[in-house]
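Self-study notes.
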Amino acid sequence: MKKRILELLTEGGILVDPAAVNLLCTLPDPIGCVKHILKDPDNRPLILSKEDVEQYAHCVSEKTIAEPRKVSEPKKKTAAVETTVKKHEVIVVRDITGDSTCVGNVIDFAKLFNDRYSTIRKMLYRRRELAGIVSISRAKKVQRDIKIVGMVNEIRTTKNGHTLLEIEDEADKIQILIMKGSRKIKEAFLKDEVVGVIGSFSKDGEIIIAKEIIRPDVPMNSAMIPNGSDSVVAFVSDIHVGSDTFLPEKWNRFLEWLNKDPSAKKIRYMVMPGDLVDGIGIYPGQEDELLIEDVFAQYEALSKLIEPIPDWIKIVMMPGNHDAVRLAEPQPALSKEIQNIFDSRVMFAGNPCYLEIEGRSILAYHGRSMDDFIASVPSLSYSAPLDAMKEMLKRRHLAPVYGERTAIAPEQKDYMIIDRVPNIFVTGHVHSCGVSEYRGIKLINASTWQSQTEFQRMHNVVPDPARVPMINLGTGESWIEDFSY
């Protein structure tokens, strides 16, 4: 089996890490997984790692459920049992809760950025167009066409309108010149993002003139494969209980629909990605707009508001920048004191988090960093948050910019890296609503239950409230139920 695997991969022009081969040999259908890897020539890795195999194997396992092989009767019974176990199962795969180690010193910050650089560098190393990457110091000695990886340290525009980046790796730094009007390089850059550069040195050998900038991005083969489930997950964000701009009539309309409409019977899960309550002291003058001025009383009111939600629906709650957790991201789940206010069907996760629901991977993030993306990338706006989410996926990072509006905790591991490719990516925060898709990944921005506040009016933020995005976990179909009328 190992020999056949190596033959197929070699024929496809892929080098293999021994650990990847060993993992392939343990899979139920190793040849099927190899064929799945080979079917997308534009995104297949140059060097197949163990992490690549884990990702591809997940896709193949979903396909196996959708297209079962003919097996003997006893094996069919075993498969049925396994399917039953996974049914209506919710797992918090990863978040920061209980694992925070930072104290905020210089060493913590160094470890955070080193982890970011090394993790995303590995992603870039697997890009075929970046085969032959060298370190910056090595590139300076070679002085020819080169390929390097670095973290963006500085971004400037020259007097002639060219873009000048300073990027650095673990040991050195260098200037990258991007010519004005470059056809291949049109996107904006963010400080602290990690990029690959293909280019050549200038005549004086001081700077690299970029031919291409490569981002880690997500693979093209990330689409959800139908798996036979008929369950639906609803996404309900930014409820802002306690605010005088909370919309109780529209919330009650949603509850009535959940309990009376036959189509709501398929909703088995509800994910709430942050700003569950309005909090206190979040923005200037907020106290004048609060109906409930005690944060614990706000959560008690939320508990009463979700009581009418049918008991067959499992709820996952996570915090946002208005909730009673630390402001710096990643944020842990709500405290036990607050969790005890809610009944046992409510699960709690940190922000961001990876969830697994009936085998589907969901990356849930409140979305505070959209403020920084929108401020830094001219083409982005609050009216189109899904575009900002695509930029996160391209960079494989939820909040690359340090020192702006999004507070980042210096954990020794960078929890904001998108190191696992999800089936579904959901955010809130900007009080907009939309569904889209990027390279097969379902994108959701999950609306709000708050009308326009004075603070939003000052900043020209127009909310799109009382709308609930839905996704069928079996087919991947997405739609929005509207309760704003």
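Second protein, same conventions, sequence then structure:
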Amino acid sequence: MRLRVAVVGAGFMGQLHARVVTESPLAQLAAIVDVDRDAADRVASHFGVPHFPSVDSICEDRHVDAAIVAVPDTAHEEPASRLLRAGKAVLLEKPMAHTLGAARRIAEVAQSSPSRLMVGHILRFDSRYAGAAERVAQGVIGVPLHVTASRFTFRQVGSRMAGKSSPCFYLGIHDIDAMQWVSGKRITRVFARAVRSAAPDSSLPPTDDAIFATCELEDGMAGNLQFGWTLPDHAPSGISARLEVVGTVGFVDVDTHDHGLRVLGVTGLTLPDGLHWPETNQRIVGDLADEVNHFLRTIRDDKDFLVPIADAVRNVAVNDAIIRSIQSNAPEVVDPPAF
């Protein structure tokens, strides 16, 4: 029997998730939810499902088994918590929340509710990062000594997200999770700096363009995080990301700049996405599809998710420490999950 799944959010990520659900043999798309009625109607009409302005109808519908919450991170807490209390399994887009307090409250609801929560840290479903994590765990590189993770995207992304998000939440959350998961060590303290410039819209205050954080991890391991929206808009790829873990006898290195497909046309060179959510044979494949189908299979089979709730909360805690360090101009301790 296929699970009936609602998608909360009719934006870019919501539409991707809705399509993955419709193409999955494990699920059936049940509804689209968005406060923007026009957007909800447009997406729902495309998929031939009903739409609603809030999660109320989904919470009350005993035929809906699960929901994917793909709204801006500032709006995660309310729908995720209500759905969990209603007994719906929830796949929540990363970051778990925009504040550590909100992340902890969602986690508390998940622990006390009759349902289950997974946060969609997509790099855990990327074969390159998963391969690196497996080899570090196997001891192939010896004892990990230091780790570096970076992620940069177009400047136009910063212009679009100014006042709505920050490099920490839009970009850094990927690599905060990857650094801790791949190395097997938790970040305990950070010292961060931000590079700022005036926003293109002069009515907005200066915004963080890039963030650099020196990290202390468990067992004396050192790390460095770098992320921002500073790539020129004519760069051939929208993401330039890398992770390197160096150990006592070797290293692992993930370089995601080039997915293996290069296209040169009249507008220049492009490097299309071949892993996160590419379309192949008229279907969305890759990391996102693997993430959604893992969520569905795990619910069906009552197994453990690949992303523990405590890990998702800790990732937000690291972000919180980075923000505090930028503000205090001093190292800040990462507050551990309170459960």
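Instructor comment on the second fold: The chain has a mean pLDDT of 93.
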